[in-house]
Amino acid sequence: MFYQIYPRSYACAGSSQGVGDLRGIIDRLDHVVGLGVDAVWLSPVFCSPQVDHGYDVSDYYAIDPIFGTMADFDELLQAAHDRGLRVLLDMVPNHTSDQHAWFTAAVAAGRGARERDWYLFRDGRGADGAVPPTDVLGSFTQTPVWTRVTEPDGTPGQWYFHLFTAEQPDLNWLNPAVLAAFEQIWRFWLDKGVDGFRVDVADHLTKDVDRNDVRFGNDLLTHDADNRTHEVLRALRSTLRGYEHQPTAIGEIWSGGASYSSDDEFPQTFGFPILKAGWDAPALRAAIQEVLADTEPVWVIDNHDTPRSASRLGPARSRALTLLMLGLPGAACLYQGQELGLPNVDDLPDEVLADPVWQRSGGTDRGRDGCRVPLPWSGSQPPFGFCDDEVEPWLPQPPQFAGFTVESQRRDPTSTLELTRRWLGVRKQLVGAGFQWRDEAPDRVHFQRPTDTGTIDVLMNLGDTSIALPPGRILAHSDPKPPDGWLPPDAAVWWEV
Q1: CATH 3.90.400.10 describes domain 101-161
Q2: Which of 136, 213, 156, 198 is nearest to 2 (CA)?
Q3: Structure confidence at residue 296 (pLDDT)
Q4: Residues with Cβ < 8 Å from 468, sequence gap 6 or more?
Q5: What is the pLDDT of residues 447-497, one digit of tens each?
Q6: Reported confidence tier of residue 257, pLDDT bands at 50, 70, 90
């Protein structure tokens, strides 16, 4: 059981900028332990200009000062291990920051230099090279995927490819030197005792940037069985071997994790199809069946890139889908605040929006800030214990967060927090990968899982009327009130026959 911490928004112990930090995580680590999870995944804490909030790395060997120091990280790692928690770092291999030493060296070296081969540089079109190499747009911002550099002699020069923002130049993974550098980076953190990595957009490494027959950058990606990405992942997987603490790696694969999940590539990939399936029983069953083809899925319905399910689906349906997810074989991941039933904040003022998607879409796409608003811990008004009262959080918290604080929910046995704790306790009874569909009616998702002593049925009602429950002992329920012989709409239940 994983718990995703988005460090900017988890807890702030000392930042005058209202940004969460490593010491804040240390101070609030017992909250994670109290949930009953096994591991935490930290979104990037490496040095970064923070254009994309850490997903633009300028130094993979250092902690960004906005989060603290390497000593703070070492203390966090030790504190987590002392509590029985494993720690995974978010690794970003598709691109770096344009302020990374590799990129600045590539620009400074000039056209044709070997340093340029670390990235995807191309000559422009036209007699003076002033037209970008292709007309493709970035899937992230729908702006051109090419930016022109100034050569060392001051003249306009080549163009470099970036699938995301211009400040995130894509690496050239056909260059063996890039792989060798990342193998060294992985071993640096593994030697420190880090328990593995969540690998950002891991299926984006192989792309044909010279194509001009598609509109968007994601269509340049190749996922065939012999693309370079598989060779890279096999090499990176080999860095995990030989460590006594048995580190793992989870791939962020939106294109279908099964093709990248194997004994010699990713031990685990995220099960995104259930996040995308919506509130539809046949679609959810198909999504579950698709993900079960992976060797070891990590199920997820919330993360830092998607609107929170409490708003996307509604609070009751979000609780029900979370309980359903927790009953599936494999691992699962909660995104910070999901255990509180935290809603998305969709009415942030335009002037505070910080996601580059907002700026680069010309104000037409509000981006992902709504799911990244700092957590409410205590009190009745902002900043709700996230930081000192005299400090403003980096994103403003709405007054209605007062009803979602950890402090208030700890006192309420019917709260989403307390329900989640009970669900995770019951989940420990499930064993192995056993799974059997029980019913394929259009108004429900129903399956059975083995335990050491028998079986547990998991049922979610997606219809408009209540479903009669057979005799049995209720073990977990998504509604604050346990079902009394009938499962109401928009609810889920586990029972033991």
Answers
A1: yes
A2: 198
A3: 82
A4: 485, 486
A5: 999 999 999 999 999 999 999 999 899 999 999 999 999 999 999 999 998
A6: low
C-alpha separations of 320 from 400, 438, 457, 461 in Å: 22, 18, 14, 8
Per DSSP, the three-state class of 309 is helix
* CATH no. for 434-496: 2.60.40.1180
* CA 103 to chain centroid: 26
Q: Tell me the residue ranges of DSSP E strands in 279-371.
A: 297-299, 331-335
275 Cβ partners below 8 Å, 6+ apart?
300, 301, 302, 303, 306
Q: Which fold has domain 2-94+176-410?
A: TIM Barrel (3.20.20)
Runs of H (alpha helix) within 315-367 = 315-326, 356-360
Say how far apart CA 183 and CA 242 lie, in whole Å.
14
The residues spanned by each domain of the chain are 2-94+176-410, 101-161, 434-496
Residues 385-413, buried b or exposed e (16+ Cβ, 10 A)? bbbeeebbbbbbbeeebbebbbebbeeee
Give which of 23, 46, 15, 28 is closest to 85, Cα–Cα.
Answer: 28
In whole angstroms, give the CA distance from residue 296 to residue 253: 13
* Omega before residue 383 within 30° of 0, cis: yes
Residue linked to tokens 């129903």: 446
- Phi/psi for 47 (5° steps) reads -55, 135
CA distances, 418 to each of 84, 337, 479 (Å): 21, 13, 12
Q: Are 195 and 245 in contact (CB under 8 A)?
A: yes
Angle formed at CA 223 by CA 218 and CA 225, multiple of 5 degrees: 170
Q: Contact 12/374 with Cβ under 8 angstroms?
A: yes
